[in-house]
Design goal:
Elements: E1 4-9, E2 30-31, E3 35-36, H1 38-47, E4 52-56, H2 62-68, E5 82-86, H3 96-101, H4 104-110, E6 114-119, E7 122-124, H5 128-137, E8 142-148, E9 158-162, E10 168-173, E11 182-191, H6 192-201, H7 209-220, E12 223-227, E13 232-234, H8 238-247, E14 277-278, E15 283-289, E16 294-295, E17 298-304, E18 309-310, E19 315-317, E20 320-321, E21 326-327, E22 332-334, E23 336-338, E24 343-344, E25 349-350, E26 371-373, E27 378-379, E28 384-385, E29 390-391, E30 404-405, E31 410-411
Length: 412
């Protein structure tokens, strides 16, 4: 079997996730209760039999480093496997390919036949071996993993046009207007010698796969698309993050991502916490409940991460609640994302009212009614927080006038 080196790009700040990425990189953002976003890419590697992995980090790498450790949950601590975290030494990574270029010696020392470039911030299950096999069959220099998207969403992706044999004829990075429907997933298989060649001959300081390397390689080499027809989501916005999380609680006939498939497990580093506890007066309707959660109130269409406590007479609805949050008696949380270790005081209302005013500071981030609270906040008793609000870690909510935060507000 040919040797494959997987490089996971995990250094992006994920600025559109705003509060959730304030103290962590996007790949380490919690997801689906007990997981982190990067767990899906790492699990895909393990399930595909790819065990030589390097993770390229940059901003705020500490939570990611702590989560991955030796790689034991993904079986990456064996004698014949390893996971290496690579951080910039003297200069920041300026582009996706520049990040790889700054680690060119690591690639050379790996003596791999192929390099698999992956993004650490998408939710999907994929057998990379099938893509690598197709790459070899096509005698390609580069193969680009692709997914079909609506052209109105094309401005988020590198878009391409391919012939009937899926040989790529055109590649446009994040076009504002296009009728192309094949989007790059940020998954690339390179012949190692060709990747090294282009990293060395191209001198753009912000060298990027989508902007620079792929368009040039199309002119000079056989470059193919590999169509992936499965579930694939970028959870880089609040709306996508909440929608994708809540999509996991749908009934079996509607769910798009099967987290319970024993043949393709999603692995993670889990805390040792007791089983979920449900009180005698609790009411639960469509929810993911993680280890250590205690529910004594009402939970509807929500995801509760490890250690969350919903006290008696409290209600959580249409929300994602991260680790060790407490919802005190009588409190109501509606259409919210609440980060770790926050306490919602008695009878407080978060995500409240019929006013859906856009967030005044960042209207492009919050317009659908989602309210987001940062880490380690204490929401006072009886406080009301409206919709499309952003409340950052460190905010002193006990100093808020009238115990009211109006819809569309940002509190720092």
């Amino acid at each position: 079997m040919k040797k494959v080196l997987a490089l996971i790009l995990a250094g992006g700040r994920g600025t559109r996730l705003d509060i959730l990425s304030e103290n962590r990189v996007k790949p380490s953002v919690p997801f689906a209760g007990k997981y982190r976003i990067i767990d899906f890419t790492l699990s895909n590697c393990a399930n595909s039999g790819i065990y030589d992995i390097a993770i390229l980090t940059q901003y705020l790498p500490f939570s990611l480093n702590d989560h991955i450790g030796s790689g034991k949950p993904w079986d990456l601590d064996r004698r014949d496997s390893k996971v290496t975290l690579l951080q910039p030494h003297n200069e920041w990574y300026m582009g996706t390919a520049d990040a790889v270029r700054k680690n060119i010696h690591y690639i050379e020392q790996s003596k791999a036949d192929y390099v698999l470039i992956l993004s650490g911030d998408h939710i999907y299950k994929m057998n990379y071996r099938k893509m690598i096999d197709k790459h070899i069959e096509n005698n390609a220099a580069l193969t680009v993993g692709c997914n079909v998207v609506d052209p109105k969403d094309a401005h988020h992706f590198g878009m391409l046009r391919a012939d009937d044999d899926l040989k790529i004829a055109e590649f446009v990075e994040k076009p504002k207007v296009t009728n192309l429907t094949l989007a790059s997933m940020g998954i690339y298989v390179f012949n190692t010698d060709i990747l090294l060649k282009y990293l060395q001959i191209m001198d753009e300081p912000d060298l990027d796969f989508g902007k620079h390397i792929i368009p040039r390689m199309i002119k000079e080499n056989p470059v193919y698309a590999y169509k992936f027809y499965g579930y694939w989501k970028d959870v880089g916005t609040y709306d996508a993050y909440l929608e994708t999380n809540l999509g996991l609680i749908e009934t079996v006939d509607k769910i798009q991502l099967d987290m319970y498939d024993p043949s393709w497990k999603i692995y993670t580093r889990s805390e040792e916490l007791p089983a979920v506890k449900v009180g005698s007066k609790a009411k639960i309707n469509q929810a993911l409940l993680s280890n250590g959660a205690i529910v004594a109130g009402i939970v509807e269409r929500s995801v509760l991460s490890p250690g969350v406590i919903v006290h008696p007479l409290a209600t959580v609805r249409n929300s994602v609640i991260l680790n060790d949050v407490q919802i005190m008696p009588g409190a109501v949380v509606d259409n919210c994302i609440i980060d770790k270790h926050t306490v919602i005081g008695e009878n407080a209302k978060v995500g409240f009212g019929d006013d859906y005013s856009l967030n005044q500071e960042r209207p492009e981030l919050l317009e659908s009614g989602i309210t987001v609270l940062g880490k380690k906040l204490i929401v006072p008793k009886n406080m009301e927080i409206g919709r499309n609000c952003r409340v950052f870690q460190g905010s002193k909510l006990d100093e808020i006038k009238d115990n009211l935060i109006k819809s569309g507000s940002t509190i720092r």
